Amino acid sequence: MKTLLAWSSGKDSAYSLHVLREQGVEVVGLLTTLNETHDRVAMHAVRRSLLLAQADAAGLPVTIVPIPSPCPNEVYETAMAGAMAAARAAGVEAVAFGDLFLEDIRRYREERLAGTGLRPLFPLWGRPTRALAEEMIASGLEARLTCVDPRVLPAAFAGRAFDRRLLAELPAHVDPCGENGEFHSFAWAGPMFRTPIAIAAGAVVERDGFVFADLLPLASAA
To answer: How many domains does the chain have?
Structure first.
């Protein structure tokens, strides 16, 4: 089944790619929304150059869907409908998502794909998130937190590695995978990539109520 994977640049979508391949699912490409104003992955604030580096390391093409900032829901839905129609015309049969347990998000995705001829897949759905986070780390997945919601997680977590130390220090009310929006990440190494993506830490800024830790391609670090 030819499958397109919704790609946020973070650990959940990266690990979804690994799991899908382990299950024998043919992932034929990645699909990402990019903020037109900043030319970065929406919410994760990851640079286009790093997104393209991920796609290259995964050995897959990436379809970029540009969206404005802010993006009204009707604009988002129109843009995604166009991307879904193009995917179906290209022979794609399913779209996979890295969602973990938010029922309303899953229902929304299923409703949007209804009637398109595309089947929704949720390879990580329902897994206990602490065990899943441990599994990701044990697999060799490496990621850094690129966005933190300071209302629920101290700003100092922005830029930190997603590792066992971080899991041990997360406040009890924060989901270990950040599924409630507590944090977002960028995956730079792991079994889903042919080679690691060289990165360096950039500036940490607060904007629109969130704390963002920029990541730079290593060649640009200077």
So the answer is: 1
